[in-house]
Amino acid sequence: xxxxxxxxxxxxxxxxxxxxxxxxxxxxxxxxxxxxxxxxxxxxxxxxxxxxxxxxxxxxxxxxxxxxxxxxxxxxxxxxxxxxxxxxxxxxxxxxxxxxxxxxxxxxxxxxxxxxxxxxxxxxxxxxxxxxxxxxxxxxxxxxxxxxxxxxxxxxxxxxxxxxxxxxxxxxxxxxxxxxxxxxxxxxxxxxxxxxxxxxxxxxxxxxxxxxxxxxxxxxxxxxxxxxxxxxxxxxxxxxxxxxxxxxxxxxxxxxxxxxxxxxxxxxxxxxxxxxxxxx
Length: 280
Description:
ABC transporter permease; mainly alpha; ABC2_TM; ABC-2_transporter; transmembrane helix
């Protein structure tokens, strides 16, 4: 979907502390991203455009009536979160890490002072920040033209989005390890991209699914983020039950635990399976 130049090489980060190295690498990633029109579109514009199209079609009103949550506005924000994690983070980052690996950029960085986790964090940072900024701006825009969301506990929603961004970044690194070329990333990212839509409970509301399927989805690393967004921003459970501030913390405990567990498990997998040199 996105194509980054495999020959583009960020400057070697300056020696110094962790913060300086992270900023140097992240700044280089922003520069490379800004030079690629397709990558910029998927990172910045694709998710808001999909939300706008669905929001004006009336389809989300029908879905909200089946799974009310915090109402149509909250449902649109949750959809934006899903799209942002899938496009701004997962697809763009998978493509970027493959391009850097095949151009031997990752190998060269690993021979310097920069630690492995610093390289991975710097690669993900611009995409995750774009994703979070999208949510803030679109939430403000939706509040201006539709019913404002409850915003009962934005901290819960923020934690969910941060964990979601981290998990989808880790999935991008694992997908990149199985992807030989930048071009083939269009195919290798598609299964998880489509699975995310099904597992989110947005397009197919949970009440419409068999109980066994719903139970499985609650423990996959997509639906819990949708729960946390609905709880924190919509001030209600996905089933539509209103929550007080204190009740939001209780309701958020399980999805937060699920996402934290996924972040740890996938982090271990990245350490074990990450490829720093071109695939043969």
